[in-house]
Fold:
Amino acid sequence: MRLTRKRNGISEADAARYADLFEKLGPEDFGPPRSGPAARRGRKSLAGTNGESPRRGIRLPEPLDARYRRKAAREGRSVSAVMREVLTRHAPRA
Structure:
């Protein structure tokens, strides 16, 4: 049994097998519960504080997005990290 990325999804038989496997899992299959700062949801704040980092969403033209993806791949970084660097470098002085 393997996961697929077919446009039509998975077969009914595979879905039934996955459901059976999932139902057999217990809490111990997911590791020990976390406590303290690790128990909070989401990623660590970029500012190093306990709060969440603000999020911004933007839409890019495909050619510009492709340029960011190529740069990130070349440098072995995420597109978000590359864009944060560019925004930081060109941020207006307050």
Observations:
- The radius of gyration is 21 Å.
- The chain has a mean pLDDT of 81.
- Residues 1 and 17 are 8 Å apart (CA to CA).
- Helices lie at 12-23, 62-75, 79-89.
